Automatic annotation (TrEMBL):
GO terms (BP aspect): long-chain fatty acid import into cell
NCBIfam families the record matches: PRK08279.1
Domain AMP-dependent synthetase/ligase: 81-438, 772-1093
GO terms of molecular function: ATP binding; long-chain fatty acid transmembrane transporter activity; long-chain fatty acid-CoA ligase activity
Protein name: long-chain-fatty-acid--CoA ligase
Localization per Swiss-Prot or TrEMBL: Cell membrane
Membrane topology: Multi-pass membrane protein
Coiled coil: none
Catalytic activity: a long-chain fatty acid + ATP + CoA = a long-chain fatty acyl-CoA + AMP + diphosphate; tetracosanoate + ATP + CoA = tetracosanoyl-CoA + AMP + diphosphate; a very long-chain fatty acid + ATP + CoA = a very long-chain fatty acyl-CoA + AMP + diphosphate
Signal peptide segment: none
Catalytic activity, EC: 6.2.1.3
Protein's organism: Leptosia nina
Length: 1330
């Protein structure tokens, strides 16, 4: 103050002496010299930034002049648009696909809309909601409404359920116009909306296209038809509230999770549009806009360039990275709009000449990350980039006017008060402004992070604040007493930092708000949603950094004391109540949470720990898989226990107690304590001192007792003190052993009994046929098989019929031991007695899948090198189709029905034979091959897995003993008999042990429990898909009126396991896992939910015949420095393998008939030189208790419909019809569906592929389970050495049309149909049959 007063006095004195002009000159020179001497850096900055600031100031002045003109004339957006139309009636306003809309046509359409709405009773101030796709009609719709003074909320088209209801309700809509493709979304919520709302669907059709002849029949008026049949209203000035009146509501996540309607007035619309126009655009520009028009960026900033300034705007239905610059070239765009994520996707496209064959001179938008800024500009030859920043509901809008990489705008260092924005200091923990002693906010210094604010000044379009429709929500975004008492400012919630030149850079979101996927996410709203759907558990939500990803991913810490949290239900409920960007990506399940006044500090700690399993203190971590819509375990699922005391492991690592007496033990303790104190020489806290004192007292007490106690007592004390440290050191291992002891003892006891029994079979060289004959002689009239809907077969009948089959084969073909016959039948007792008849001769039966036709069927017969094929009457047609391609010497036998010429009637021939056991010179042996069971294995065409008598008996004995079956049990078997589960597990107990089996021709969910009741079954078989179908049945009394005590099978998902138990009251579920061709078979013996088996903890790891080993991303085994495989640690996924020992029937590996295929499933030098293991191809994970859980298939093999599918074989099958087009096949996950569905990506840049021909070829060449369900037509596929990585990327992208911009198709019936967003949703929701 004194300096200013002195300068003023000096100026007046000089003025009096030298005159005004010279005095002024001298004064200015003095000011300059003062600043150059005392504020050199500021002068440098001012000179450096003057061009930027002056250019921005000139733009700002032009914006204010336009605003002043519009305010003086009280103009609205429709009024200004009319002026533009008058100047350029025939100029193109919008390009949209192949449509061209002139300014005159847009206004005429909007006038028709005005007339329609007026006829429907819409008046000034009423609300007309729009839920419409990008199209030229969308801005015309709200222009027409605005002319009546109505306000249009632009509703996000991705909203469904509660979010959609909220959006319509919070805006208080009087009418709603929605695109016809959102009819189902509207119908889902219509019952919860105000019935007074007038609903109109809108069918988007090209301009001037004829009205369809037939109505849709849904009873909802089509607004497009009304517009087409209504004459335009005469033009008048808008009957609204003028320049300051409300124009639109645009929904933004703001500071709460549910959408909020931000108020857009005419003045704010004009300010935002003109601000961008005067930066780098002009009225002759053609603007490319692929952004959604319900958001500020696309719907105002881009579209507004046409409505306010007469630019031509190119609209796109959806963004496409590959078409971005080709579109710009096609339409001759000179400016293009982006958001940051788009730029990443565009850069990810392969370089092409189109990258620079365009006329775009400026791109504008927000979110272009500094890391890719320069690369983007250089690659696509962009002259100017205008990055802008602002909140839809706020008044703080800035722009980067000079293309400084990474900057989102600036604060002028020369005249900061002209545009009053600032960065103020905030508490890093709470996000609250830090105030000085006067209670005012403090401005952050250069390079100091702070929250971005904009001072509020009513009646100034650049500084006014309208907030949300919800006034309470608006008030939360205002901070008061900012720089003077009584003033106020909009607080953005974003952390920015300004460098010394005033350039602003985005850093993060503050407090309880973070940004993800371009949206603001409120932790409080998400917490409320989680608490509501998770039984009001305590939950805390925060954002965590994910490397190389923009923004912060949502993470939730949730309390679950008793392990009852249902994460699958949580994911499903959150998908209903929260938009995708607001759903927590990570979940951390905790035992407790501090909810005191220091809770926010706790949240900060959780945020710092993130989702790193090494930092989360043993809490369980889960990751949201959006494709499956479920939370899957991430990293360590169980706490990793380390000694929790102040000594930790270091205390007990040095305990070496002597064996000579108590005194030596005490000396050992003293040595440990001294060593510990020496290694930790810093001052100890009170707790450590207390613990040391307690230990010294304990030793003193022990020494005193030693003086008076007997030798025996001394020995006992010594033993306790010697063992105690070891118990503590290995307490986790001891806990695991104690916990798993009952399970392991039960398993080992049953396993031992099974091995004793199989050793007896091996010693006596017993075959399956011999055991069956013994069983039939022992209980001839006992039931062997019950066939649902047919009859009961006794052991006598099964034996006699099998004997007759043997005799026919001897007489007709002279079959001998080692020959092969194919058996091709549906489920029936005849199927079993046929192969039993072959077995008595030592003939191998190849059991063929009864669903196979054409090439796969022929392949199965040929690969078996069969002498004959036996088939049922119902499958005669399938054989007839391929008879001309069968080997000439193969004999055909038909069971039942009229046989075709050249086919032997097996039943008639059997009737001629004696029922006595055939005379066999060369009897079958224990190690002879019994069956071929076909499995897709590691190639797409079926492969014949070798099933020897020895393995058959191992399986049956293991099944009976592990399940605890007895002679009173009866097994229900609705599974196909040509597979391992149905044909061996389901029937072997009857064949060998006399436990009857109930056969059903085909599985029926509605009859499952009815059959079990009717036939008094105590054991029932399943596969995972069956369980889903059972649960889908309406509840009925038969659900619990059965006697089933055991369900056995494979593929029951953990999510439905407990539901099966609870609903059907089945006390025991035994999940089995194993490969038909392999030797690694395991079983869940104790009902642990989700487990497919376990690794016994009583047996040393080195002795386990099964193991999990580490693999890389491509599915290849990872080897250590010693060249051997590396065992996985608990909770670490790995490849499941079975060590091979040909001398042990349980560990022998016989593989396939095709020896080369067998070798591909073997890994050598696994843990020692010369050993070998069967490689399953499955990813499993073992928890700390040894329980094994199935995760996925590896490499080029996936599982679908219970079958293994090889991508290589499917690619080969497709190749013959693709005319040398590149093709890659992979499996994709479908939510709530087991396995992976086949998908093929095909390079077809010309889009000339005949999909109908492809479908027909696939049907002829591949079995049904191997046929691709989805197609992706791409421009090219890179076939390099890193091709597998590309395949993995395709697999991750799945079949989501919102993620993939390539054409997608779905196999529906006999043809491939395009995958729309609605079809994708229906598939994911289980509404489409797969």
């Amino acid at each position: 103050m004194l300096l200013a007063l002195g300068a003023a006095v000096a100026f007046v004195a000089v003025w009096q002496y030298l005159g005004l002009l010279l005095s002024t000159f001298i004064f200015l020179v003095g000011v300059v010299v003062y600043h150059l001497v005392f504020h050199t850096r500021w002068c440098y900055i001012a000179i450096k930034t003057a061009p930027r600031d002056l250019r921005a100031l000139w733009c700002y002045v032009k914006v204010l002049l336009l605003a002043w003109r519009c305010s003086r004339n009280n103009l609205t957006v429709p009024d200004i648009f009319h002026e533009v139309v008058q100047r350029n009636p025939n100029k193109t306003c919008f390009y949209f696909q192949d449509e061209v809309w002139s300014f005159k046509e847009v206004e005429e359409y909007s006038l028709r809309v005005t007339a329609v709405l007026k006829n429907q009773g819409i008046k000034k101030g009423q609300i007309v909601g729009l839920l419409t796709n990008n199209c030229p009609q969308m801005p015309a719709l709200w222009l027409g409404a605005a002319r009546l003074g109505a306000i249009c909320p632009l509703i996000n088209t991705n909203q469904r359920g509660n979010a959609l209801i909220h959006s319509v309700t919070v805006a208080k809509c009087d009418a709603l116009i929605f695109s016809d493709e959102y009819l189902s979304a509207f119908q889902e919520v219509s019952g919860q909306l105000d019935p007074k709302i007038k609903a109109f669907k809108f069918t988007q059709r090209p301009l001037n296209s004829p009205k369809p002849e037939k109505a849709s029949g849904d009873g909802i008026p089509d607004f497009a038809d009304l517009v087409a049949s209504t004459s335009p209203a005469p033009w008048t000035k808008a009957d609204g509230y003028g320049f300051q009146g409300k124009l639109l509501y645009i929904y933004t996540s703001g500071t709460t999770g549910l959408p909020k309607a931000a108020v857009i007035t005419n003045s704010r619309f004009i300010f935002m549009v003109s601000g961008m126009q005067h930066m780098r655009l002009n009225s002759s520009d053609v603007v490319y806009c692929p952004l959604p028009l319900y958001h500020t960026a696309g719907g105002i900033v881009s579209v507004g360039q046409a409505l306010i300034f007469g630019c031509t705007v190119i609209l796109k239905p959806k963004f496409s990275a590959s078409q971005y610059f080709p579109d710009c070239a096609k339409y001759k765009a000179t400016a293009a709009h982006y958001i940051g994520e788009m730029c990443r996707y565009i850069l990810a496209t392969p370089p092409s000449p189109a990258d620079k064959q365009h006329n775009v001179r400026v791109v504008f938008g927000n979110g272009l990350r500094p890391q890719i800024w320069t690369e983007f500009v250089t690659r696509f030859n962009i002259k100017y980039v205008t990055e802008f920043y602002g909140a839809t509901e706020g008044n703080a809008n800035i722009a980067n006017t000079d293309g400084t990489p990474g900057a989102i705008g600036f604060v002028s260092r020369i005249f900061p008060s002209v545009y009053p924005i600032a960065i103020i200091k905030v508490d890093q923990e709470t996000g609250e402004p830090i105030r000085d002693a006067q209670g005012l906010c403090q401005v952050a210094g250069p390079d100091e992070p702070g929250v971005f604010i904009g001072k509020i000044s009513p009646n100034n379009p650049s500084r006014e604040y309208h907030g949300y429709v919800d006034k309470a929500a608006s008030d939360k975004k205002v901070v008061r007493d900012v720089f003077s008492h009584g003033d106020s400012a909009f607080i953005s919630g974003d952390i920015l930092v300004a460098d010394e030149f005033g350039y602003l850079y985005f850093r993060d979101r503050t407090g309880d708000t973070f940004r993800w996927r371009g949206e603001n996410v409120s932790t409080s709203e998400v917490e409320a949603a989680i608490s509501r759907v998770a039984d009001h558990r305590d939950a805390v939500v925060y954002g965590v950094l994910v490397p190389n990803t923009e923004g912060r991913a949502g993470m939730c810490g949730i309390v679950d004391h008793n392990g009852s949290l249902d994460l699958e239900k949580l994911a499903k409920d959150l998908a209903r109540d929260l938009p995708p960007y607001a759903r927590p990506v990570f979940v951390r399940v905790m035992n407790s949470m501090d909810m005191t006044g220091t809770f926010k500090m706790k949240k900060t700690d959780l945020q710092k720990e993130g989702f790193d399993p090494n930092l989360t203190k043993g809490d369980k971590l889960y990751f949201l898989d959006l494709k499956q819509n479920k939370y899957i375990p991430l990293g360590l699922e169980e706490p990793v226990c380390v000694p929790s005391g102040p000594f930790g492991d270091q205390l007990f690592a040095h305990v070496h107690l002597a064996s000579e007496g108590f005194i030596d033990a005490a000396s050992g303790w003293a040595h440990v304590l001294g060593a510990f104190r020496k290694r930790h020489s810093q001052p100890t806290d009170a707790r450590m001192d207390a613990l040391l004192a307690a230990l010294v007292a304990l030793m003193a007490l022990a020494a005193a007792m030693a003086a008076v106690l007997s030798t025996l007592s001394k020995a006992a004390i010594f033993a306790i003190l010697a063992i105690a440290p070891c118990v503590y050191r290995y307490r986790k291992r001891i806990y695991v052993i104690v916990k798993t002891l009952p399970r392991d003892i039960k398993f080992l006891w049953r396993y031992a009994n099974a091995m004793i029994r199989t050793a007896k079979y091996a010693r006596n060289n017993t075959s399956v046929a011999e055991l069956f004959t013994q069983r039939a002689l022992k209980q001839p009239d006992a039931p062997c098989f019950f066939v649902v809907g047919d009859r009961t077969w006794t052991f006598r009948e099964m034996a006699e019929n099998s004997n007759r089959v043997s005799r026919v084969m001897q007489e007709q073909l002279g079959l001998k031991r080692g020959d092969v016959v194919c058996v091709f039948m549906p489920n029936c007792a005849e199927f079993v007695y046929t192969w039993l008849g072959m077995a008595k001769l030592g003939v191998v039966s190849a059991l063929i899948n009864s669903n196979l036709r054409h090439k796969p069927l022929l392949h199965c017969i040929q690969v078996a090198n069969a002498k004959a094929i036996v088939y049922s009457e119902c499958l005669a047609g399938a054989i007839k189709e391929i008879k001309d391609e069968l080997p000439a010497d193969i004999k055909r036998f038909q069971l039942y029905g009229e046989s075709a010429p050249g086919v032997t009637d097996l039943r008639a021939e059997m009737d001629k034979q004696s029922p006595d056991y055939p005379e066999v010179a060369d009897k079958p042996q224990y190690n002879d091959t019994l069956l071929y069971i076909y499995t897709s294995g590691t190639t797409g065409m079926p492969k014949a897995a070798v099933m020897k008598n020895s393995k058959y008996l191992i399986v049956v004995v293991a099944t009976v003993h592990m399940l605890g079956l007895n002679s009173k049990d009866r097994m229900y078997n609705p599974l196909p008999l040509y597979h391992l589960a149905g044909g061996l597990v389901g029937t072997a107990a009857a064949v060998v042990d006399g436990i009857p089996s109930v056969l059903r021709t085909k599985f029926s969910a509605s009859n499952y429990w009815t059959d079990c009741i009717k036939y008094e079954c105590t054991v029932a078989q399943y596969i995972g898909e069956m369980c889903r179908y059972l649960l889908a049945q309406p509840p009925k009394p038969t659900d619990t009126q059965h006697r089933v005590r055991i369900m056995v099978g494979n593929g029951m998902r953990p999510a439905i396991w407990q539901q099966i138990v609870d609903r059907f009251k089945v006390p025991q579920i035994n999940e089995i896992y194993g490969a038909t061709e392999g030797n690694a078979n395991i079983i869940n013996v104790d009902n642990t939910v989700g487990a497919v088996g376990f690794l016994p903890k009583l047996v040393p790891t080195s002795l386990h015949p099964i193991a999990l080993v580490k693999i890389d991303e491509a599915g290849n085994v990872i080897r250590g420095a010693d060249g051997y495989c590396i065992r996985c640690q608990p909770n670490e996924p790995g490849m499941f393998i079975g060590l091979i020992s040909q001398r042990n029937a349980a560990r022998a590996y016989h593989g396939y008939v095709d020896k080369s295929a067998s070798k591909t499933k073997v890994e050598k030098d696994v843990f020692t030189k010369g050993d070998a293991a069967f490689v399953s191809g499955d990813i499993l994970v073992a928890d700390e208790l040894g329980y094994l859980f199935f995760r996925d298939r590896t490499g080029d093999t996936y599982k679908w419909k219970g079958e293994n599918v090889a991508t290589a074989e499917v690619e080969d099958a497709l190749g013959s019809v693709l005319d040398r087009r590149d093709c890659v096949v992979y499996g994709v996950s479908i939510p709530q569906t087991e396995g992976r569905a086949g998908m093929a990506a095909i390079a077809d840049p010309a889009l000339s592929l005949d999909l109908a021909q492809l479908a027909a070829h696939v049907d002829h060449s591949l079995p049904s389970y191997a046929r691709p369900l989805f197609l992706r037509i791409t421009k090219d596929i890179e076939i390099t050495s890193t091709f597998k990585l590309k395949k993995i990327q395709y697999q991750k992208e799945g079949f989501d049309p919102d993620v993939i911009k390539d054409p997608l198709y779905f196999r529906s019936g006999a043809e491939f149909v395009p995958v729309t967003t609605q079809l994708f949703t229906d598939i994911c929701n289980g509404k489409v049959k797969l």
